[in-house]
Amino acid sequence: NAGVMQNPRHLVRRRGQEARLRCSPMKGHSHVYWYRQLPEEGLKFMVYLQKENIIDESGMPKERFSAEFPKEGPSILRIQQVVRGDSAAYFCASSLSGQGARGRNIQYFGAGTRLSVL
Amino acid sequence: AQSVTQLGSHVSVSEGALVLLRCNYSSSVPPYLFWYVQYPNQGLQLLLKYTTGATLVKGINGFEAEFKKSETSFHLTKPSAHMSDAAEYFCAVSDSGGGADGLTFGKGTHLIIQP
Lengths: 118, 115
Hints:
The complex is a heterodimer.
Chain A: E1 5-7, E2 10-13, E3 19-24, E4 31-37, E5 43-50, E6 53-56, E7 65-68, E8 75-79, E9 88-95, E10 108-109, E11 113-117
Parallel strand pairs in A: 2-11
Antiparallel strand pairs in A: 1-3, 3-8, 4-5, 4-9, 5-6, 7-8, 9-10, 9-11
Chain B: E1 3-5, E2 10-14, E3 19-21, E4 24-26, E5 32-38, E6 44-50, E7 56-58, E8 64-68, E9 73-78, E10 87-94, E11 104-105, E12 109-114
Parallel strand pairs in B: 2-12
Antiparallel strand pairs in B: 1-4, 3-9, 5-6, 5-10, 7-8, 8-9, 10-11, 10-12
């Protein structure tokens, strides 16, 4: 029973390029969350998605960042025109259900994608 | 707004000694509380969670935590440290059980185990 799968594990981009990070949730999970971890910091919530819907993007930077979770395929976090400050570890988590399903919506995390911007 | 404070970015204990990692939170509603562990270059693994009911929660690997509402605390303990416990530990809070609004994390505590 595979857990949350993220790829690539490491991604190197030059300033101005685009970064695409992928996340396949655990089997049966339809809720996906993206977090960013800067060095020496905890994880910061970015966005919460269900299939084909963005539910909460309150933690997402207003420009250059976008996320999707299509009906088929993995969730994608896209960063356009990357800058050095985007260098971080990006974690995806998935849960069986979302708000209101107390006790069942534990978030399971992937191993992360470490983005380095040169 | 929720927040989490973890006292001590680094905690060092001897193998076999008591582990105590501190976590204080603020939340406008009854919180759901979590402890996660992160080993080097890996994702976060849930250690334990508090939702409702018994305030002393037991988790994996011998860890436990106690929810103290009066102190707004959720400290993590383990009676006897093992070398394999060396890792980064994150306390997190949610007011929806970790669902729609996402989790709010502390900055983490790096646990060092001395032989």
